[in-house]
Structures are given as structure tokens and as C-alpha cells.
Input
Amino acid sequence: MTTDAAETTAEGLVTPPAGVPGGSGESGGAAEEVKNILSEAERNFLSGRTGRGTETGSPTGAGRADSEAADAGARADGEDGGTGGTDGTTPRRGRRGHRQENPLIRGTLIAVSLVFAALMLVLPLLAVLSQAFGAGWDNFVRSVTDTFTVKALKLTLLTSLVAVTANTLFGLTAAWALTRYRFRGQGLLVTLIDLPFAVSPIIAGLIFILTYGRLGWAAPFLEAHDLKIVFATPGIIMATVFVTIPFVAREIIPVLAARGTDEEQAAVLMGAGFFRTFFQVTLPHIRWALVYSVILCSARAMGEFGAVSVVSGHLRGKTNTLPLHIEILFNEHHYREAFAVSAILVITSIVILTARSLVEWVSKKEEEPGVR
Amino acid sequence: MFVELRDVSKRFGNFDAARKVSFELEKGTLAALLGPSGSGKTTILRMIAGLETPDGGDIFLDGQSIKNLEPSRRGIGLVFQNYALFRYMTVWENIAFGLKTKRTPKAGIKERVGELLTLIGLEDLAGRYPAQLSGGQKQRVAFARALAPNPRFLLLDEPFAAIDAKVRRELRSWLREMISRLKITSIFVTHDQAEAIEVADRIIVTNRGRVEQTGAPIELYRSPATPFVARFIGESTVVRNYNVLTGFENAPDGAECAIRPEFVRLFAPSEPVQYENSVQPGRVSAMAFRGDVLEVTVRVRDFSLATSYSLERPSLSVGDQVKVLIYRLYAFQGDQARLVGNSLLANGGGGYNFQI
Amino acid sequence: MAKAKRIIPGFGLTMGLTMSYVGFFVLIPMVSMALVTADLSFKEIVKSATDARVLSSYKVSFLCSFLAAAINTVFGTILAWVLVRYRFAGRRLVDGLIELPFALPTAVAGISLTWLTTNKGWIGGPLSKLGLEIAYTRVGIVVALTFITLPFMVRSIQPVLEQLSPDYEEAGRTLGAGSLTIFRKIILPELKPAMLTGFSLAFARGLGEYGSVIFIAGNKPFQTEIAPLMIVTRLEEFLYGQATAVALFMLAASFIIMFLVNRLQIRAARFVES
Output
């Protein structure tokens, strides 16, 4: 009987995804059709026009030369960083590839993308904002100035501040240690740093409960010293730190690794110590990657839910972060309030995304001093 | 001796980068560490600089062991292969860096940097970043940066490798002139024998982690101590079983030798030869005009020997029979090379009789 | 390769800090998990990890994560393609929004998607009139996971497309190949490794995702209960051993997936190179 239930749901579920790739199949079909309908000359005309049309849209020749000069020198820098390194090649993209692209395929694909992005990315944002402000500004203000909300906000800020600061320092030292020296167990260390990415946030929370919880092996020690970690602020901070450990390190390691150690060697040979070498020689190379990764790390730290939910104990006004507070409000059917609090986080993440794009843009412009 | 390496060794895993390397240099010498890639020359340079720690042996500078001295306290300037200029500092800041770490007073830094900028002729570019400089300019800045703290010893790692051929010639003579003007003892690493011969006072030839021979360029050319040096310096043809050659019948079977172009002389069939019994028949297999002489490849028995032939002599063409006289050659015995003269010539082939 | 002396300064300082930090925040907690596991008998582990309700939660998690990753393989590839190859109004905006699921707290995404898809929401409302339900069904879980894992796919494929020289396609075109042929024979093989990476990242992330799913899933045992929720449920019952057993199974599963996909990827990469 239970299996039956599962089966029906599964069947119901098959429909939308199957229909979804169907959409792309359609566009493929359309492509074939267009190919058959249009004569050679017509196609050439259309593609020629498309080509010119986009040429104007793409950056000027000078802009291209710029980016190429920068490429020559500092491409290897990988300042664009891993996940979001997209804008660096912006002037390059779409320069040629679509010159002969069929306009119908092009249109269809753009339309599919825009619809998908609108449904998946824009609509959820609009939903939150409309629900938050739907009942007017006063309601919104009342929801977000509620005592528990303010307390949750404070805890979220504190947690993020500590976690981001700690992980930034860690990321820098780890990246330095992993790229400036060779030692045994380097691979293992990288794996350990990556581990939090591979582990479910729930498991991240679980391991802290198992360590510092009432039944954890560290419990006797903690009780003897009257320390409370789980179901208290330290636990929330530690779980957040765990989940965001890889962010800064992972962003900076490839940048430093790609650059080699020549400049540091030269500095050392001229008598520079660790701090002078780091701040004057190394840091300028990684500053954008650093800013970028700190932004991403902050986003994750503020929004972390699963791990924090496990270790928090949901003590309202004490161990609730904003995301946990939202959960409680939502589950208690205070939708208006839940969305109002969510709006704070939505606006924050939009700010973060904008900052991210800005950093990418600026870092591209300044990839290497002197390259204009 | 100003610089002395004594039995310096270094291993990387299973790779011997330096095996009991020893050599000495007098003060003011400009020396070349010459060898093929992987011969350990850069490792030797880095050990002197202190960027690599030798597994054994000792390094002396001005009579004092520097093996355990911090790299920055050795009084050594190093020009890196790719210059390793600080990319986020201007030319001025790059040169001043080594002075700032030594807590030189501001006025002193300003004066010294200005002096060096004048020396390298880049006063106008003080505010530029490395990315805005040409290869040659970067090289000059790297040179000035290494010189700024007044090192007693200057090391240059492949200083011309990253520069295109045209500028390289210019830069070579510039560097040569700078160093002799400053009278600073220097070693530069290179894999280009022509560069070493042209620039250096002394050449240290390395091969597979060992020093093959140390000497003035002309010494190495005239009396290579090992088969490797005979092959590596100057042009030569290596020949096996050379006891089939007229005048060298006494050589053991299977022995190898190197024959330089100037050791071979060709005579047209019509030309008289003083020692008719010391020549052997050969056939011209290729000819190339080199501007002032002809470069002739001649087939003698199974060997192809290269030599030059004056335009003033009776004309030759490919396929012609010629008489080939081999004055002398470098006979290889184990890891030694020895000059051996043609036994049928009156003076036994003699040696070089020029002096520089 | 341990050297007697390290030339660049700061080895002791940075290594010391790095090791202590990783030790304290990663190693010690992970060791606790091993300790708890060691206390359990093999039988107990198997029993807790294969309980009927737990088994059905795995099924839900794997199925929904797989579908979400599959959906993203299609739409993520199209999005990446469009963003790399075409210029159009709003391109930069879409490009910037791709990372929204990374930046938006999962709980916010969860309640927002839930509200949208319930029968009172903008999307769920019209659909419920057609008899289609998203919220509180497995379809809802797939929707949430699709949202969460979208950036993995797009960001895996984008750099590869950017590197892909248009010369190949132009060569193909001059040889008379049609758009579909060019895509299938020239572009798709180049993208395969990146698609596999994106898929595996999305799939693995989907298995572990919690925050965005629990709101929309409805969490009905045997129907819409995901595996991470089972861990939480067991923890709330103070059954630490059972929670750990489920966690172990999940960890093993995600490592195996990553391993398999890695091998596939290596193969695909080799094929592309040759």
C-alpha cells in the first residue's frame, strides 16, 4: 500500500521533467525545420545580418585589445576566481561563434533561457518581496523590529562576522602554506579543507552534536568547566565556521598556485620577512580573489540553515539566527512576518550579488597595474 | 680566491642535480655556468644564492663559509630567469625594495635608486609597472634591483633566455660593459655556448650535475678536458674508429674522437701537397656559401667531416674527389679528451700557435 | 620532499595555524563520528540505516536529486550556451542572477518556492485548477533542488564554452554540417566532461540539501521525507547512533557518486583529448 502511494507520486512526478526536456526537443525540431525551409541565400542573408548586429553589440576593437593585453600578462593569475570567473572573458564571448548561427535557434534558446531564469530565479525573489511589502510598509517595519527578529539578526551578524573573519584568516594561511611549501600530506590537507563542501549541512551539525552534545565525548569536560557549546551561540558559530571553511581557501589557492613563488623568493633574497613579503608582494595579487571570496563566504554564513538548525536547539531569542527565525514564523503560519524577515535576507543577497559582479568587473579592469 | 665551491652536492629524489661540484673564481671575474638543460647549473646558482640548501659540501665567499648564512645576509644579488619583478610595484619601488628591507634612510634610498636608474638608462620610466616594460627593459630593472643593496657577488639565471634574438645581442654587450664597469664578480647561467664564449671571462661547463671543466673560453676551446666539452664548445664532428684515418693508425680500435673544422684541410686533386703520404682521398658531398668562405662537407671513408674552404683556392664542386689532410683531433679516452696530432706530419701536427 | 630549510618565511606560522584550525573544526568533529560508529555493532548500523522509513527517504532523496540534476543538465546547458554565445538585453542581469541560489539563504528559497507552489500561490494556484500539485509532493522537492543546484551546472559549463574555439564549428559549417550535427558531433563531446562534473556536483548537493526542501516537501513519512530529514528526526529522538548510521550511509553514497563520476570524467576527458 505504501509502495502504491510512492509509485503514484513518482508517476505524477515523471510528467513535468519529461515535459521539460520535451521543450528543448521542440527547439531542436524547430531548428531542423528552419534549416529545410530557408534557402541557402536566405540563410546567408539572415546570418550575415545577425553577425553585424551583434558586432555592434560586442565591445570595440580597442576594448578587445585591452583584454588581450591583460590576458597576455595576467590571465594566469586567475583573478577571476573559480566559480564566478565569467566576466573576464566577456569581451571575448560571442564574438564569432554565432556569426552563422540560425536566428530562430538563437531566438528559441534565448527565450527558453529567459523563461527558465524568470521562473526559477526572479519569481522567488518577487514572491518574497511582494509578500513582505504587500501589507504595507508599516507592517513590514513592525515585523522586522520585533524583539525576536532583532535578536536573531544580531546573532546572525555576530555569527557571520566571527565565521567570516576566522575563515578569511584561515584561508590566507592555508593557501600560503599549501602553495608556498611542499610537504607530506598536502593532498590530505586539501581534502580536509574541501570536506565541508561534500558533507550535507545536516551531517555538519550532527558531528558537532556528537562531539560537544549531551552524549558527546567532550561533554564531561565541558560540564566540568561549565561550558556550553551545543544549543548555544558557540555551537552555532562553530557549525557555521565548518560549513564555510572552504570558501576563502578554495578561491585563493588556485590564484597563488598559478603564480609561482619567484616574487616571494626575490623578496626573501632582498631581506624581506614574512609580513613584508606577504603584505607587499603577495597580497596585491590576491586582493580581488580575497574580496570576492569573502563576499561569497558572508553570503553562505548568513544564510546557513541546516547545520545551524541541528546545533541550535531552536531557543527563541537565544539561539535563533534569522533563517531559523524564518522557519519558526513560517511553521507557525505567521507568513507575513516570515516573508518580511526573508526580505531582509533577499535584499542582502541582492547586495551581495551586486557586490560580487562589481568586484569581478573592477578586478578585470585592474588585472595588472599598468595594463590599460 | 673570492668564490669557492667545494664538493657541493644536491639531490632531488632520484635526480642528482649537483655531484661534488667544485670551482673557484677570482674577484672581478664574469663567469658563465654553461651546460645543457638539466645539467644542474640553475641548482648550483640557487645554492650559492641560498634558495636551495646543499646536501653536502661548502660554499665560500671572500674566504668565509656562507652555507649556513641566511640568503639575505650573503651579500648576493640574483637576477631571476623571468626577472620576478614585483608586478604590483613600479620600477622605482622594485629597485628600492631591497634597500627598504635593510632600513636604509629615505634620502639614501632616493639617491641610490636614482643612481641605478641613470645607470640602466631608464630614468624616465621610474613610475611604470613591469607590465608596461619591454623584455629588455625588464631585464635592466631586474639587474638594477639586484644591484641596489650593493651585493659583493651577482648571480644571473639565464639572463637572456626570455628576450628575442635581436635585442639579445645588444643586451649581452650592455651587460658585459656594465659588469666590467662595476667590477662586480658575477656568474650567469646559460645553455648557449656562443653566449658564454662571447660574454664570459671564465666558463664553468656542467653536465649531469658535474663540473666538466673550468677555464677561459679560449682554453676550453683549445684544450677541452673531456669529450663532453669537446663536443659542447665550438663545432666538431664526433667520429668513432678513427684509427682508419691516415696519420692516426696508432689509435685503439673503437676509440672516439672529435674533429673541428679547422683541423681539416682540403686540397684539390691538381694541388701539390707537401706530405703526400699524410693525406687521404675524400669526396665533396655538400657545399654551402657562407659569405666569405665555403662550408664544405667532405666524405672520408664512412665519415662526414665539415671544414671551410677559401674562395681563393682552386674551385670545387659537389662530387669532386679531394685530398683530405687531418692535422689533429681530440682523442677521447674514458672521460678525458686529448689533442693528438697527425703522426705523419713533420711536427706531429703541432698545436694551436696563436695567442690572445 | 621535506627540505632541511624552507626559503620562504612563515612555514611554522602558517602550517601551525592551518593544521590547528583544520584539526579543531574538521578533524575532531569527524573523528567523533567515527567514535560513535565504533560503538555501534555492524548489525545495528545496518538495521538503523535500512529501516523501511529510512530506505524510502533514500529513495526520495536519490530520485529527486537525480531528476533535479537531469533538469539542470538540459536547462543549465542551454543557459550557459546562451550566456556565452549570445548578446541580448538582460544578459548581464541573468548572468549575475545565476549565483542567486548560492547567495540566497536556503530557508528563504524554501518558503518562497513553497508559497509560490501551494494552491494559493502564483504558480500553484492556476496549476491546482488543472489538478496539478507541486508543493508537498515530490515534484516540489525536485523544484527546490533544481533551484538550489542550478549554479553548479551553469558554472561548470560556462568556462568550457568560453574556451571552445569557434574555429571548430566554423570548420564544421564550411564542411556543410547543420546546426544540430555541429552541436552533437563537435560541441557536445567537448562539453561532456563539464556536464558530468556539473551533474555530479548538483546531484551530490541535492542529496545533502535540507533548508530549501523541508518547507516544500511536506515531510510525509514514506512519501516526501528526505534522508537528511531522517537524520534530524533521529537526532530529535536522541537516537544518536541511528542518526549516525544514516549519516554514514549518506556520506558513503555521496563519496561513491563523486568517485564514479570522477572516473567517468577521466575517461571522457581522455576521449576528448585523443
The mean pLDDT of chain A is 75. Chain A touches chain C through 129 residues (CB under 8 Å).
